[in-house]
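User: what does the whole thing look like in 3D?
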Amino acid sequence: MPDGVIEPKRGRKYDQVLDGARQVFMADGFEGASVDDIARAAGVSKATLYSYFPDKRMLFMEVAKNECCRQADEAIESIEMDAPVQQVLCDIAGQMIDFITSNFGQRIFRICVGESDRFPELGREFYESGPMMIRDQLVAYFDEAIARGELRIEDKMLAADQFHELCKADLFPRMVFNLSDEFTKAEKMRVVNGAVDMFMARYGT
Amino acid sequence: MPDGVIEPKRGRKYDQVLDGARQVFMADGFEGASVDDIARAAGVSKATLYSYFPDKRMLFMEVAKNECCRQADEAIESIEMDAPVQQVLCDIAGQMIDFITSNFGQRIFRICVGESDRFPELGREFYESGPMMIRDQLVAYFDEAIARGELRIEDKMLAADQFHELCKADLFPRMVFNLSDEFTKAEKMRVVNGAVDMFMARYGT
DNA sequence: CCGGAAGTGAACTGGTCAGTTTATAATTAT
DNA sequence: ATAATTATAAACTGACCAGTTCACTTCCGG
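Assistant: Here's the predicted 3D structure for the full assembly of 410 residues, as structure tokens:
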């Protein structure tokens, strides 16, 4: 079997381990998750797990990277970039809020923040595949809209970061400090519309 | 000694313990800090420490509560509420950014977020003495400014939360994910001005 | 059907840590 | 000065966990 492109990275149980790890990390956090639990959840022996991954951290990094990319791609697909600016911004805001308030978004954020001292690559990795990608996507979209005369922005990076932050108003603190872990459609709409209105008031033409 | 109002809560070494705990928690986080280290830093025996506080969590809560109140009071004092709106908003934004990017602000946030699953009172406590207080203060200020005809706001709570979030643009993600831990005056000014301009474009008269 | 690769389970190492206990010493109040 | 309170040091309990090792089993390709 010289190749076959989609052969599972190595060994049969690689994905199984990743799945188990995802479950346990999402349920218990990074420090909270024990490798024994992960092996049990994956239906795999600890020795096998350690034959795939050098240590707990690398295992976690792999889980996080995988899931982030998957979710980001999904979100980007689903947006119709040719609609009117207001509409596009609403869609983007909706996607961002859905991610931020999702179970995965919540957990990964919590872990990245909590562990990033003892585990600095993690924060950086997440920043680059999260906030930074969002900013780049937004700036690219702004460029188009500016060219069409629909927006006027001096500092596009700042505008992107501002929009991102506006989408977190109210919801994010409540979530992150464990006051709520789900939000109604109405609560989300309020924030989406608030963000878009504010953004257009400042940067609309 | 029937009373004397300012007698240290009980026992001579109470404050000493709190000081040591603050140092070690700020340096190592919550899980990262060992009670032995705290006792050593406080110059106190472990048994003494445990005679003041029932467990590590309660000790941490006390440290956090103390420090939050102290910092919040300081910040509120320092603002001249009768200046023009733009000026007041700039001052408030500056204060918020200074707190968020301060060593203490950073550490306490990291700990609250990281531990709030296994330790839910903590998140709530911090929310109430942090984001919620800020929102209330802002809303109170908005009321005055609206009465003077300087602002026009329908949803004041949302506006307060938006302003708060705007102050975190760029800086907050970079800090929280450990890409930077200090910021130049210029970086802060860019965000402050960006926040105020955006806010005034939306809610100014 | 055989041989090597992949996987298993369970015990083990070496370490950390919260919280308790005990016998002893320093402070303080009366 | 004496008795009660408060503090100390150090050892100890009981628990948890990452990562390793090893003797053994299962799986799969040639």
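In plain terms: The domain at 64-203 of chain B is CATH 1.10.357.10 (Tetracycline Repressor; domain 2). Residues 11-13, 44-48, 51 of chain B lie near DNA strand D (CB under 10 Å from a C1').
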